[in-house]
Design a protein that fits this description.
Blueprint: H1 3-39, E1 47-53, H2 72-80, E2 82-88, H3 94-103, H4 107-110, H5 135-140, E3 145-150, E4 169-172, E5 203-205, E6 208-211, H6 219-233, E7 239-244, H7 266-287, E8 294-300, H8 327-330, E9 331-337, E10 345-352, H9 354-364, H10 380-385, E11 393-398, E12 401-407, E13 410-416, E14 427-436, H11 452-466
Parallel strand pairs: 1-7, 1-8, 2-10, 3-4, 3-7
Antiparallel strand pairs: 2-9, 4-5, 5-6, 8-9, 11-12, 12-13, 13-14
Helix pairs in contact: 3-9, 6-7
Length: 480
């Protein structure tokens, strides 16, 4: 073999080796990508934990821009998971908002919204209709252990309580913490040092009252402990924990460990204690080896109660607050977390609390009810693969009336009204007021004249929505 032949042979061998290495590398990359794709979805049935604050504003967390309220655990939760910036509730007040989350349906469909009584009261006669399917009842079909901890506010009579709506356990107060008030004093006479017995709110376990008045100074701490205990007890089976804090709704209470510690005053103390509880729950999930297969979501029922000034929260750059269909009333902070499962990101697509019913049902392998109109969409692909959110629109109801609609970036107001008269009475708009929320989240600049085609599109969407809308019988108006 001459020298030229030898060199040629060596070159052929080197070329073959190079081709083999390139092929092997591609195969490894494909395998790795496939493994990553597979690992991004929970194996088997994931656990679910919903932590639902009360009257927390869009701007009340550090990760959403608050300058003095320190929320390190929620901030870390957002870094490790997904922070959603366009996430909405089903109503701007307590009762209908909670009904929307737990049923995956607009409250107008089941009568859990009303012009006569915006929420349920201790003398209300009704509650969530028996025919509604709650998220707990849905997950029970797949063998989940279920717990409702905290504020319920979907009916305090026994047939309406959590234990008759799919929950194995209930520990909490049946309605808002400012109800059953037994003092004639003006709130501001005692606001910064509130006697717990000024509010005769009952604390319940299942269907029994175990403490009255509830000691609200320690209630946030006890809710967290109850949630942790349930998680540990049911760690060998799929579980669903619905932890609905009754704070920072007024009156404000914090335990001794947090009282007076926040730069934001009592309101900040309350939020920082809730944040601490979130940290304890996430730590428990990690310690028990459950974090990777547990979906945790943190959000709130509606915006801040601005009329209570420093005892209410902040909607940040959003307009108005609780009780309104302006952005500050219905857009909420929302964080999803499941290490190595949910892809860390800031999600600017649309989402709502009603989507939790559909999304969790899909993850648990439970069929979506087909005997009723459902208003949730499945966010699984966004959570696990960072695909665009499938939600295209948000409907803003005040009671049983449609006040506004968001379609994509644009929001049209057919009616506007302030919080309980705080910012003016109801005003109808013959030509809807139109805002581009991507460039004007504060709803300051009406662009209706420049975009009549957008209004036409939204009007067409409203027409389609109303074509299958049956308004449910009012469940909130009747009282003793």
């Amino acid at each position: 073999m001459n020298q030229a032949t030898t060199i040629f042979t060596i070159q052929k061998l080197l070329l073959s080796l190079l081709i083999f290495l390139l092929f092997w590398s591609c195969q490894q990359n494909t395998t790795d990508e496939g493994a990553e794709q597979t690992s991004s979805e929970p194996s088997g049935q994931p656990n679910f934990v919903i932590i639902f604050a009360d009257d927390l504003g869009y701007g009340d967390l550090g990760v959403y821009g608050h300058p003095t309220i320190k929320t390190p655990h929620l901030d870390q939760m957002a870094r490790e998971g997904q922070k959603w910036t366009n996430f909405y509730v089903g109503a701007s007040v307590c009762t209908p908002s909670r009904a929307a989350l737990l049923t995956g349906r607009l409250p107008v469909r089941n009568g859990m919204s009303s012009n006569k009584s915006r929420v349920l009261f201790p003398n209300s006669l009704h509650g969530l209709p028996e025919g509604e399917i709650t998220l707990a009842e849905q997950l029970k079909k797949a063998g989940y252990a279920t717990a409702a901890i905290g504020k319920w506010h979907l009916g305090h009579r026994e047939q309406y309580l959590p234990t008759n709506n799919g929950f194995d356990l209930y520990f909490g107060i049946p309605y808002s913490n400012d109800m059953d008030r037994v003092t004639d004093k003006n709130y501001w006479e005692f606001a910064d040092s509130i006697p717990t017995d000024y509010y005769n709110v009952p604390l319940m376990r299942n269907t029994e009252i175990i403490e009255r008045p509830a000691d609200q100074n320690t209630i946030t701490k006890r809710y967290t402990e109850e949630a942790i205990g349930f998680i540990k007890e049911h760690k060998e089976e799929p579980f669903f924990v619905y932890l609905a804090h009754n704070l920072p709704h007024i009156p404000l209470f914090a335990s001794e460990e947090f009282l007076g510690k926040s730069e934001r005053g009592l309101y900040g103390d309350v939020v920082e204690e809730i944040d601490h509880g979130v940290g304890q729950i996430l730590a428990t999930l990690k310690e028990q080896g459950l974090a990777e297969n547990t979906i945790v979501v943190f959000t709130s029922d509606n915006g801040p109660w601005l009329s209570f000034k420093t005892h209410g929260g902040s909607a940040g750059l959003l307009r108005a607050g609780k009780g309104t269909t302006w952005e500050g009333g219905m857009r909420e902070p929302c964080i999803f977390w499941a290490p190595d499962r949910i892809k860390p990101a800031v999600i600017t697509g649309l989402g709502t609390t009603m989507d939790l019913f559909t999304t969790f049902s899909t993850m648990a392998g439970v069929a979506i009810p087909d005997d009723r109109v459902m208003d949730g969409v499945d966010l699984t692909a966004t959570l696990f693969h960072k695909e665009p959110s499938p939600r295209e629109a948000v409907l803003y109801y005040r009671g049983p009336e449609l006040y506004a609609v968001r379609l994509g970036d644009y929001k049209a107001h057919y009616f506007t009204q302030g919080e309980y008269g705080m910012f003016g009475g109801k005003e109808a708009h013959a030509t809807p007021v139109l805002y581009n929320l991507s460039v004007d989240p504060s709803e300051q600049y009406d662009v209706a004249e420049q975009h009549p085609e957008i209004i036409e599109q939204i009007n067409a969407y409203v027409k389609e929505h109303r074509s299958n809308l049956v308004v449910g019988e009012d469940q909130l108006a009747d009282r003793e």
